[in-house]
Amino acid sequence: MRTLSNQLQSDGRLGGCFVFKRGHPTRGNAKVLFVTIAYQLALNVHWLRGPISQVVDHNPSVLARSIDIQLQKLISEPCCMHPNQAPLTILIDGLDECEGQGVHLNILHAIRTCFTPHPLPLRFIIASRPEAHIREMFESSFYHGVYRSFNVWKSFDDIRTYFLDEFARIHREQHQTMSTIPLPWPVPKVLDTLVEKSSGYFIYASTIIKFVD
C-alpha cells in the first residue's frame, strides 16, 4: 500500500491515505479517519481546498460529528461541486486494525452510501485481512456491482518464503529439541494452512514464528 500510495502521488492521482494501527491513540480511532483524509484533500487538491475549508469555517462542529456526516460534509458534498474532474484515489490500509466490528461496518456503509445519490470523482482502495464480517459486507447486495476484490498473491509467496527460512532456522538452531523431528518441518499441509491464514500479513507470520521459537 505504501508503494501504491507513492505511485499514485507521483501520478497526481492520490487524494489521501490513512493507515489504521490497533491500539494507537489516533490511528486506531475511526473518528479521525475522514477528517484526516479531508485535510489531505484540502492540502493537496486545489479544486477542493476552497469548498472543504468553507465547510469547516461555517460549521466547525462537523469535525466532531459521526463518521458518515464527516464523509458527507467534508468529502462527498465538496466533490459533488466538481463531478467532471479526473478521479482521485483514497487509500485506507488495515481496516481490520480499527477498533470493533461495528466500526468496520460503519465505515464501509458510509463509503458506499456517499456514492448512492450521485457519482463522485473518487475511488477507494481498502486493504484489510478478510475478516468474515468485512467479507460479508462486500459480498452483500449493498455493494453489488460497485467493488472489485483483489488478493495480493505476491505477499503470500513472500510469507511462504519467510516461513520456510524461519522454520529451517529454528530446526537448525534447536538441534537438541528438534533432533527427532524429520524434515520437512512443518509438513507441507501445515505450512499451506499457515500461509493461507496469514492473509499475506507479515505480522501474523512473525507472531507464529516468535511463538514457535
UniProtKB/TrEMBL annotation:
<keyword id="KW-0677">Repeat</keyword>
<dbReference type="Pfam" id="PF24883">
    <property type="entry name" value="NPHP3_N"/>
</dbReference>
<feature type="domain" description="Nephrocystin 3-like N-terminal">
    <location>
        <begin position="2"/>
        <end position="129"/>
    </location>
</feature>
<dbReference type="InterPro" id="IPR056884">
    <property type="entry name" value="NPHP3-like_N"/>
</dbReference>
<protein>
    <recommendedName>
        <fullName>Nephrocystin 3-like N-terminal domain-containing protein</fullName>
    </recommendedName>
</protein>
